[in-house]
Amino acid sequence: MLVDIFIPCVIDQFYPQTGWNFIKVMEKAGCSVNYNVEQTCCGQVAFNAGYWDDCKEIGSKFIKEFVFDRYIVSPSFSCVNMVKHHYSEMFFNTVLHNEYKQVQRNIYEVSNFLVNVLKVTDIGAQLSAKAVFMDTCSSTSECVKQLEALTLLNNVRDLKLLSIDNPTQCCGFGGMFAVKNEPLSVKLGEEKINDALNVGADIIISSDVSCLMHLDSIIRKKNISLKTMHLVDVLSS
After folding, report:
1. Local confidence pLDDT in tens for the 237 residues of the chain
2. Which domains are delineated in the chain?
3. What is the C-alpha R_g of the chain?
4. Which of 102, 22, 100, 118 is nearest to 55 (CA)?
């Protein structure tokens, strides 16, 4: 099966190896991938900051880059959520109405695609560690628990998944929130990190690299013995 892939801007700019691991996972699952080198961003940052005109310009570019009627897969729950649930607020009844509807139908977050479309629950990964999985605000705001990610992680050999008391509590990133409200953002991040440490975790896993980048910055600054990993980095191991 040939699928289009969307690599979020944060992965492209700061964590390119995660992008390569995403491709590795897709190929392990039996897919061939098409990467449009002109792709940049879904517009989520501008949308959340209130710059809807800028977001619409970026979103128009995004829609035109994925005009093929085939699956679009991304390693970012929040980017997929942006396209699926918020493009309607900008492109309904516009010249791109039919195109954005097609993109919404076709786009999937990677764990959702693997489990619900390909019916793959075991990617053959192995990682000896104790970890917690962090649901992102973009999933909880849509009342969606990332059960597909948990299904895949539960089949990673030698990986022990631990539970924390507040798995859906915000990590403090929130896009521009972390810039405009740094003290509160850091406080929330520290609470998330302490939750993981309190249950004896070695790793915090998430499907959104921006959240992990925020937590990792605190971990590095405070020299905490804890690691962050994106879901696809775990699945590619």
Report:
1. 999 999 999 999 999 999 999 999 999 999 999 999 999 999 998 998 899 999 999 999 999 999 889 999 999 999 999 999 999 999 999 999 999 999 999 999 999 999 999 999 999 999 999 999 998 776 555 545 679 999 999 999 999 999 988 777 888 887 777 778 888 989 999 999 999 999 999 999 999 999 999 999 999 999 999 999 999 999 999
2. 2-117 (no CATH), 126-235 (3.40.50.11810)
3. 17
4. 100
Name the amino acid, one letter, at 107.
Answer: I
Amino acid identity at 215: L
State which H helix or E strand residue 33 sits in. Answer: strand 32-34
* Contact between 99 and 64 (Cβ < 8 Å): yes
State how far Cα 26 lies from the chain centre.
15
Instruction: Look at the block and give the residue holding tokens 């939750």.
Output: 195
First-to-last C-alpha distance (Å) of the chain: 23
Rounded-to-integer distance, Cα 44 and Cα 82, Å = 6
Which residues, at least 6 apart from 110, have a Cβ–Cβ distance to it below 8 Å? 22, 25, 26, 73, 74, 75, 207, 231, 232
Q: pTM, whole model, 2 decimals?
A: 0.92
DSSP state of 142: T
Per the listing, tokens 């998430």 go with 206
Kindly compute the dihedral angle of the four CA atoms of residues 132, 111, 6, 212, in this order, to the nearest 10 degrees. 0
